[in-house]
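Posting for a labmate who doesn't have an account.
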Amino acid sequence: MTLTRSGEESNSFNQLLARYERIMEIGQQLNSTLDHAALLRRIIAAATELTGTESASILLIDQATGELRFELVANLNSSETESIVVPMEGSIAGWVVTHGEPRVIEDVQRDSNFFSSVDDQLKFHTSNMLAVPMRAHNRVIGALEAVNKRGGSFTGEDVKTLTMLAAQAAIAIENARLFQQSDFMAEVVHELRSPLAALRTSMTLLLRPDLPEDKRQGTINTMQVEIERLIRMTSDFLDLARLESGRVRIDIARFELDRLVQECVDVVASQADERGIALDTNIESFVVDGDRGKIKQVLLNLLTNAIKYNREQGRIQVATYTSMRHDEPFAEVSVRDTGYGISKEAQKKLFQKFYRVEETADVAQGTGLGLAIAKHIVEAHKGMITVESEVGVGSTFYVTLPLAP
């Protein structure tokens, strides 16, 4: 007896087969991509294509803070979503991450777990949603959402498809992270080679019996400078590695921001005096909740940079004031200098690790990690750090922190 499929069954089977073949093809593309940003874009494109939806989003658990944040949303810049923290309780994505199970919501406006403030901030209307956990090595690292199904409701096949994509995407993201870590180690080794080479050369000179005494003392001074440089570099490497891995503890306590800012200004005052740089302050009194030591590290980095990359007889203006973000009050610290300024192109990379502005790389030594560390610390406090700059005029860095209730 011969079994035959109806035309409708055959067509449905062929569509399903084509979908699975497409998932396999996308999986191969994801696994061959180690660039984190490009990988996220491919995942978003695949999610909207395979589920036939208007939009899609990737939410990942922040490795430093444990918070759930948007990593990428279709048709939006990361700057529009980077400040949004999605609660584990009271959001669909949070429920999916916590329970490790997919969810289909046909009318999100009626769902008690719908985090409506995201729509409010992004000026977007969510009608229905499919959200699935992203699991890598038996650990949920985030959620993948498909939003607003075109022309109907989500099906069981949509759930299976997005779940398969999320599993492949999670592994690809973890691989990209591991690659970045190995790339980080390569950069560390590269940065260490320069001071180590200088120390080896200095040691060779010191071993020469015919070396004049004045040259001997100069060589010893060089070695001291390079040793201090190595100590600073290794401290920065460890700080950044701990921040990126989430091993740094943020000790939250209430403190007076104005006192901390003045304390930091006093610390760098002698450095500014040596170059004839004037330090002006306009400090208002604010109280914030945070790790005082970590915030001090950020402010000292900004102030020392403002001195190092300023002009002789220049000026630095430090101010504190309040600002509003998403209808919530924040305390803001600004550090303005009259230095060389930073081009628009360089500003895009300024907070990346190991990045140094090419035009001022020879002005002062550094690891290119200070601002990357500062960004991690400020964001761990649910704040943000930004820069405004004009070449030949100067730069202003802003640190924004939530005010204490």
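Reply:
Got it, the structure tokens are right above this. The first helix runs from residue 7 to 31.
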